[in-house]
Specification:
heterodimer; A: 719 residues; alpha+beta; Aldehyde Oxidoreductase, domain 4; 3 domains; seven-stranded mixed sheet; 23 strands; B: 157 residues; Ubiquitin-like (UB roll); DNA polymerase, domain 1; five-stranded mixed sheet; 6 helices
Chain lengths: 719, 157
């Protein structure tokens, strides 16, 4: 039995020995170093580019401009609006303009200073409200990227029927993924003339498609391989180094390596979207939430990346894991001349969870009810209609997550003067929103008589390799030693989609299960489960022409209505409740997170040790989101000005797993990567209110901000 | 350019280095020790941690010319595939590894701690690894692993 067992990660032995090859550890003979010259202006026309001084430097081999691109100078996960290399216009500080290639990193970085670009500045727009009102256009299509609405029931009627109404505005800021390994990769032309890219990435097939368009080469002339990847969190979904390396290899016919410094990573990588959320909740005396009206304004920066996805996802999830009869949500995403915001663990939901969980607590306060009771009363369950009127018929273990926390909530006791407890809850749709997002894989046999598992799923540290292998072993009833995993290589795998949206265990897990069922049938027919050895079956199979067993799964969803967003955007949802205990030093504003009780409905925990690892890591990121992390444009450069939680910032954590099995998932499993983070910041904000009586409406509620809040509350008392 | 010699993982090595060359560069580029990672190059993240005379140092901030005659250890010293160090075993069994980028530095900080403190309290463990950032794990399983390895090492004494 492999499901639910704490088997060790399959890559862990190498990792404790320091052996894995990350992209920057790779070396190819004759390799050039590549570096990107980036815009120093937020919004400007490029009048002139002078590369002569750089080219004259000893060791500089080539400087590549947009004019050198053989195919399309455009990429983007959702829409192809981003330029690899800017031509006539730049739209944010950090936008790539040139690639400089040379014999060493040192010489190339030196050459950056020899480039001269003349700009003609255009008015720059730094916030979504100015963007909305400005006549200056960042793109010809206008400054509004996306406008989505969720309409269910009649919100006006809903508020009229309500006995209490709470209304507040919540703000969040930019966050960086801050993966430990910065963006990096190498590329070369193999003996067949194929361009091979090996990089730190969350998706290989998507990147092959983009490179194919960039170089105007068929996809079979491109091979993308995932190197061991040092964290992703959404920041390695977009093209980072891959296009630039491919272009450099294509033009120079030499191997090329590229690696961003931490400063470049902070400057160039996508960020978590800052959201401005106006939120109004109406509730009846008995505690039932009757109406919710939300207005979300987001800053997507200069290009789309995942801006539209976050716009819609935030809107759909705005009511939280509660059944609300009357819903009206508007969500707008505006272009600005800030750096690009994109996918980051949760796609906008950690931000809206901060808002809806704050509101639920305010409702409870007004009604003099227990916050847990209000959540229990309104919580989604089987038979509930979500904000998009999706009927939950299967796995929906939200109330069970609350019940796991309930005894600790009831027994909570403030230890110190400024101790507080807070709840945070969430639901999260697994997989992409209302669109097909299939995964495929295949199984066959190796010459050595083993099962070859060909997987296109990118392992970014989250443990997908191990979870998928467990699903395979369980279905086939074979041992780990019987399987060879060939993963993350476009030449040896089918497209599994990106490692994003908490989808790999659920979507790709089901695809693996599908392939394994087919292989099991074959093995059975060949007598494997009776007396034949695997080696024997393999030899026989080889003679008959090696069979290939393909697995496929596309979660059953339907596109949501363009006006009301009503529909079935996700096949299944994860649910969670966190309860957090904190301690505030009123004099300094320092908030210590002491203990978290975290309860998650994961459908089925394929590997409990790894499930726990996801939850601990999510909590750490939630602590950062709530209290520490703030990317300040033009100020934040590296880890000396961007603080992520250290071991000293981590609370004690107790984990409770709810397994409301999802029938469409492999062995009932859903997803967890993002859910682990989503409720954490919200629970801290509610705990701060409980501890010192002040409510944070802006994140991060860092030490200065919390101190100012406490001071302003004091002033009120004096008045 | 100066020639330095020092002990690397128990073996004496001689290497030519530039005056301003960092130990991180020398180890990775001249001595092929790729387990030492660069995360920020300004001494904030700890992925480049090495031991010099069993004390933790950021190799990105250490000049190679300063390690002449000293004892430098990287994760390769701790154990190998045949015989893992109890810390490595504990990192495996406790689930203390996800992406693995911080792991070598984290193991060395833990190793240095256990040399000095056979029976560390959780707060002492947290402090010892507070200079090693990890974005994946939330540190808890790392702390558990170090506590567990300390117990094993004590038994072995």
């Amino acid at each position: 039995m492999f499901i639910g067992r704490d088997i060790d990660r399959i890559d862990v032995l190498d990792k404790v020995l320091g052996k894995p090859i990350f992209a920057y550890d790779l070396k190819v003979e004759g390799m050039l170093f590549g570096c990107i010259y980036r815009s120093k202006r937020p919004h400007a026309l490029i009048k002139k580019i002078d590369i002569q001084d750089a080219l004259s430097l000893n060791g500089i081999v080539k400087v590549i401009t947009h004019a050198d691109i053989p195919g399309e100078n455009a990429f983007g996960a959702i829409k192809k609006d981003q330029f690899y290399l800017a031509g006539d216009k730049v739209r944010y500080i950090g936008e790539p303009i040139l690639i400089i290639l040379g014999e060493s990193e040192k010489i190339v970085r030196k050459a950056l200073n020899s480039i001269k670009v003349e700009y003609e500045d255009i008015e720059a727009i730094y916030d979504p409200f100015s963007s909305r009102d400005s006549t200056t256009l960042i793109h010809d299509t206008g400054n509004l990227l996306s406008y989505r609405t969720v309409i269910k029931g009649d919100f006006e009627q809903g508020f009229n029927e309500s006995d209490v109404v709470v209304e507040h505005t919540y703000k969040t800021t930019w966050l960086d993924h801050a993966f430990m390994e910065t963006e990096s990769g190498i590329g070369y032309m193999d003996e067949t003339g194929k361009i091979v890219i090996c990089s730190s990435t969350q998706n290989v097939h998507y990147k092959r498609k983009e490179i194919s368009k960039l170089l105007a080469l068929p996809e079979d002339r491109i091979r993308v391989i995932q190197a061991t990847t040092g964290g992703g969190f959404g920041g390695k979904l977009d093209m980072t180094v891959e296009g630039y390396i491919a272009l450099s290899v294509y033009l120079t016919k030499r191997p090329v390596v590229m690696r961003f410094t931490r400063e470049e990573s902070f400057l160039s990588n996508t960020k978590r979207h800052p959201l401005y959320i106006e939120y109004k909740t109406g509730a009846k005396k008995d505690g039932s939430i009757n109406a919710v009206k939300v207005n979300i304004i987001g800053d997507t920066g200069a290009y789309i990346s995942y801006g539209e996805t976050v716009c819609l996802r935030a809107a759909i999830h705005a009511t939280g894991p509660y059944e609300v009869p009357h819903v009206f949500v508007e969500s707008r995403m505006f272009y600005t001349n800030n750096h690009i915001s994109g996918a980051m663990r949760g796609f906008g939901i950690p931000q809206v969870a901060f808002a809806h969980e704050s509101q639920i607590d305010e409702v409870a306060l007004l009604l003099n009810m227990d916050p847990l009771e209000v959540r229990m009363k309104n919580g989604l369950r089987r038979g509930s209609l979500t904000a998009t009127s999706q009927l939950l018929t299967n796995s929906a273990g939200f109330l069970e997550t609350l019940k796991k926390i309930e005894p600790f909530w009831k027994a909570r006791k403030k230890q110190g003067l400024h101790t507080g407890f807070g709840l945070g809850c969430m639901y999260y749709g697994i997989g992409n929103t209302g669109v097909s997002n299939p995964s495929s894989c295949y199984l066959t046999f190796t010459d050595e008589g083993k099962i070859a598992f060909h997987s296109g799923v990118c392992e970014i540290g989250q443990g997908s390799d191990t979870a998928l292998l467990q699903i395979l072993l369980e279905t086939l009833n074979v041992e780990e030693r019987d399987v060879v995993l060939l993963r993350g290589d476009t030449d040896t795998s089918n497209d599994a989609g990106s490692s994003s949206a908490s989808r790999q265990t659920y979507v790709s897990g089901r695809a693996v299960y599908d392939a394994a069922l087919k292989m099991r049938k074959y093995l059975k027919s060949k007598g494997y489960y009776d007396c034949e050895t695997l080696r024997g079956v393999c030899l026989l199979a080889k003679e008959e022409g090696l069979p290939v067993f393909e697995g496929f799964f596309d979660p059953p969803t339907s596109p949501v209505d363009s006006k009301t967003s009503q529909g079935i955007p996700y096949a299944t949802y994860a649910f969670a409740t966190h309860m957090t205990e904190i301690d505030v030093d009123k004099a300094t504003g320092f908030c210590k997170v002491k203990k978290v009780h975290a309860s998650h409905d994961v459908g089925k925990a394929i590997n409990l040790k790894n499930v726990k690892g996801q939850i601990y890591g999510g909590i750490a990121m939630g602590v950062g989101l709530a209290l520490m992390e703030e990317f300040v444009p033009s100020k934040t450069e590296s880890f000396d000005s961007y603080y992520i939680p250290t071991s000293m910032d981590m609370p004690d954590v107790e984990i409770f797993i709810v397994e409301d099995e999802e029938p469409t998932g492999p062995f009932g499993a859903k997803g967890l990567g993002e859910p682990a983070l989503i409720p954490q910041a919200a629970s801290i904000v509610n705990a701060i209110k409980d501890a010192v009586g002040v409510r944070a409406f802006e994140l991060p509620c860092h030490i200065e901000r919390l101190k100012a809040l406490i001071e302003s509350e004091k002033d009120k008392w004096v008045e | 350019m100066v020639t330095i010699d020092f002990t690397l993982n128990g073996k004496r090595v001689t290497v030519d280095v530039n005056d301003n060359e960092t130990l991180l560069f020398t180890l990775r580029e001249k001595l092929s020790i790729k387990s030492v990672k660069e995360g920020c190059s300004i001494g904030e993240c700890g992925t480049c941690t090495v031991l010099i005379d069993d004390e933790t140092h950021y190799s990105c901030l250490t000049l190679s010319s300063k390690v002449t005659g000293r004892d430098v250890k990287t994760v390769e010293y701790l154990g190998n595939i045949i015989e893992l160090h109890p810390l490595q075993e504990a990192f495996i069994s406790c689930g203390a590894v996800q992406c693995g980028y911080c792991t070598p530095g984290m193991l060395l900080s833990a190793y240095s701690l256990l040399l000095k403190n056979k029976d560390p309290q959780d707060e002492e463990i947290k402090r010892a690894i507070s200079g090693n950032l990890c974005r994946c794990t939330g540190y808890i399983q790392i702390i558990e692993a170090i506590r567990y390895a300390a117990g094993i090492l004590k038994q072995n004494c």
